[in-house]
Structure formats: C-alpha cells, structure tokens
C-alpha cells in the first residue's frame, strides 16, 4: 500500500474498509465523527510495514482522553492510502532525507 505523512492531521487516516474493520475490533461507537471506546477497553494495535519493518501504534498511541471517555484517533476515507499523522509522528522519531528521497524512523532513546 501507499502512505503519506502529515503533521497537520490529529488522526491517522486510512482506507474506509480497513479502518471500519479496525474500529469494529475495538467495538468503537461513532459520537459525532469521533470513535469512542471505554477507557479500560483493550483492542488490537495498528501495524504498518514500511521497508520490511513493522511499526506499531498501541492503544496509548491512538487515544485521546476527554474526561471519562476515550476516543480513537483514526478515521476512514474513500482513498486507497494511509496518512500517518500525529499519533505516528509522536511515537517515532522521523527523518526526511529529501536528497536521497527517503524517510527513516526510530523509537526515541529514553533517558
């Protein structure tokens, strides 16, 4: 598949059918365009394979807490590609190398 990167969007976006399956696995409910889940609920991670390596977004990477509710930061679109936005860019250190036309990722080193 194809992916793009955006620091503009707060949600990961992807093909509607794949995102719908992911949200169903979480039993998420639509609340005005936002996908709500109980904060103590567990569900599958969101994995991306990029250049032969797996990059995983877990629940803590994908949710925003608002009071006693949690919302998954993912949205389905009628496109056939993923946009790896703030949830991905917050977790993985990302280097854009325009000269070599490549992108690199790593987990940040913790002190």
Regions with pLDDT < 50 over 5+ consecutive residues? none
Radius of gyration: 14 Å
Shape: globular
Q: Could you report the average pLDDT, rounded to the nearest whole number? A: 88
Class by helix and strand content? alpha+beta
Question: What are the secondary-structure elements, in order, as H or E?
Answer: EEHEEEEHEEEEHEE
Enumerate the strands of the largest sheet in spatial order, edge to edge or round the barrel: 3-4-8-7
Helix content: 10-25%
Number of strands: 12
Largest sheet: 4 strands, antiparallel
What is the end-to-end distance? 35 Å
Provide the β-strand percentage band. Answer: over 45%
Total DSSP helices: 3
Keywords:
111 residues, alpha+beta, four-stranded antiparallel sheet, two-stranded parallel ribbon, 3 helices, 12 strands, 46% strand
